[in-house]
Design a protein that fits this description.
The protein is an alpha+beta fold and about 270 residues long. The protein folds into 2 domains: about 90 residues, no CATH class; about 160 residues, Alpha-Beta Plaits, CATH 3.30.70.270. Helix content is about 65%, strand content about 10%. It is built from 11 helices and 5 strands, in the order αααααβααββααβαβα. Strands 2-3-1-4-5 form a 5-stranded mixed β-sheet, sandwiched between helices. A hairpin with a 2-residue loop joins β2 and β3.
């Protein structure tokens, strides 16, 4: 939508700039001013283009000079405004402690990915990951050490995930990964993350304490193999995570394994 609006402004500016050659002289400065503002809305590049147009426009030299300056200033202003908007948007969807995406961003991307899979086929996999016995760690070492641990886990997730994967912190000690592809592929990434978390040096996080071994459990579910919508996908991944905890923690369980276990019990 934004791209179409920008294209429309550029076209309008081009038409207004061209019209300055055919309009009566008294109307040319007004048309040029409107053209400059329309084209400069394209940002820094738009400002340069608008300034170039203004420099050769059939208007008096003082008007030309003023329009060149206006074009460059307006283009630079729009460039900085867009940059500020992008920065604000990034902050809005970023967890400050870990640097990962937050729940709101992750939920939006998940629904978008499910819509893409419904339309074009393929799979997308959700990994829910939870630190084991984090409350005990927090109680023993304090919230500051707990926050440093969470930040280190965020760094491990960002380092081990692939470029196409989305990593987020859901709050507390719970994290999530969204990966294109099947559960078998996601399990490989999840296992790398699990190992990276187990290798975090808690001695570096709290030098006055005896180092702890930090572990994490994960549950994996794939759309559309394990679920029909986003809510069910979260539910299936959560069930698999709960099963990983039940089996002794520090492990990864897929939704398919949970179903197989329930089938054996029913049989």
């Amino acid at each position: 939508m934004r791209g179409r609006v920008g294209h429309a402004r550029l076209c309008a500016g081009a038409v207004l700039a061209a019209s300055t050659w055919f309009l009566p002289p008294p109307l040319r400065p007004v048309a040029l001013a409107l053209a400059v503002l329309a084209v400069a809305a394209g940002g820094r590049t738009g400002g340069v283009i608008a300034a170039t147009v203004a420099a050769v426009a059939p208007v008096p030299v003082p008007v030309r000079a003023a329009m060149v300056v206006t074009a460059l200033v307006a283009g630079e202003f729009e460039h900085r405004h867009r940059s500020d908007r992008r920065t604000l948007r990034a902050r809005t969807f970023t967890d400050r402690l870990t640097g990962l995406r937050n729940y709101d961003y992750f939920s939006e991307v998940l629904r978008s990915e499910l819509a893409r899979v419904r339309r074009y086929g393929g799979c997308v996999t959700l990994v829910m990951l939870d630190l084991d016995r984090f409350k005990a760690y927090n109680d023993s070492h304090g919230h500051a050490a707990g926050n440093r641990l969470l930040a280190s886990v965020g760094h491990a997730l960002a380092r081990e995930k692939r470029d196409a994967d989305i990593a987020a912190r859901f709050g507390g000690e719970e994290f999530a990964l969204l990966l294109p592809g099947r559960g078998s592929e996601a399990a490989i990434v999840a296992e790398r993350v699990r190992q990276a978390i187990a290798e975090i040096s808690t001695a570096a996080l709290d030098r006055h304490r005896v180092p702890d071994i930090v572990t994490a459990s994960a549950g994996i579910a794939t759309f559309p193999v394990d679920a029909r919508d986003a809510d069910e996908l979260f539910e299936q991944a959560d069930r698999a995570l709960y099963e990983a905890k039940r089996r002794g923690r520090n492990r990864i369980v897929c939704a398919e394994q949970v179903r197989e276990g329930e089938g054996r019990l029913a049989g």
